[in-house]
TrEMBL record:
Pfam family, one: Mito_carr
Descriptive protein name: Related to Mitochondrial carrier protein RIM2
Similarity-based family: Belongs to the mitochondrial carrier (TC 2.A.29) family.
Predominant cellular place of this UniProt entry's protein: mitochondrion
Organism, as annotated: Hanseniaspora guilliermondii
Amino acid sequence: MSKDSKNLKDDIMESSEYLGNSEGSKYSSDKVLIEDGIKHVNKKPEIKPYVHFIAGGIGGMAGCIATCPLDLVKTRLQSDGFKAYIHTKSPSTTMFIFNSVMSPFQILGNVYKTEGFRALFKGLGPGLIGSVPARSINFFTYGLAKDLYSKTFNNGQENAKIHLLAAATAGVTTSTATNPIWLVKTRLQLDKGKTTNDKIYKNSWDCITKILKNEGIKGLYKGLSASYLGSVEGVLQWILYEQIKLVLETPNQKDYESDTLKKWAMRSGGAGLAKFIASMVTYPHEVVRTRLRQQPVLVNGLPKYRGLFQTFAVVFREEGIRSMYGGLTAHLLRTVPNSIIMFGTWEIMTVLLSK
């Protein structure tokens, strides 16, 4: 449309309400209807909070089941008990990198041979019990907080700052609510006994009981400070994911009723890319959190790992910077597809439940 044509159209729209006779109010009404229609076309439909809650839970469940064996490998590589495995076989930095890449596959095969197929899914129960409410709470809180903050601080419009505040709120809320579940999952995954008699914990309930008996209620919240630090990863992921979605949403693609398989796949892939970047930036907190949650290692009658910064200092001093990235390969192999599956499922369920 030329500039003159556009100006003519604007003049007609502005003067239309004055052009009619006694029945001319019709023109003014038509103008309002046209403008409302234009606004409505590109308006993203509101999604009820419960939709995010249910869809997030289903997405978390799908991702957890699909990637459970790699989660087990990652946890073991991060733990104190497995640090010797990587260091004894890594006299040089080159060998360390090589073994870091290959060790997840070696450990996966070793677990299968020595502990059986079922051992690959150790911690799946607590993982599901944790993933479903964790993802439900996270997606629900993020959606609710994003809506609240945008209306309160930015006239209902979203931007990077709103995404940042909403993601931080969701991360802290989720970490506080689910830390005991993740602690139990970590303990079970590090319990390497093949038979019941060899194991420290018989099941999840036995693990909770023994933790409360031996370590008190505070024992269930070990690693919480590291989880709060880990919220940074979730914050980065949400911000990157939202920005990737904006890039994918070209002006002629913003009709949310006509999403295609291609757009869904691109969004899911964007979630995986966002997770990859966020994980690379924030990974050391994962190692520290695992050390704090594992069965306490005693030194002179006191726990070796007693707090966030103290654990960072001990691991760095005794094992070097390399140990801060123990299990990174397994972590990326698990979390990237996990995010793709989780966010992809969440997108699908959000559309289905909204209808």
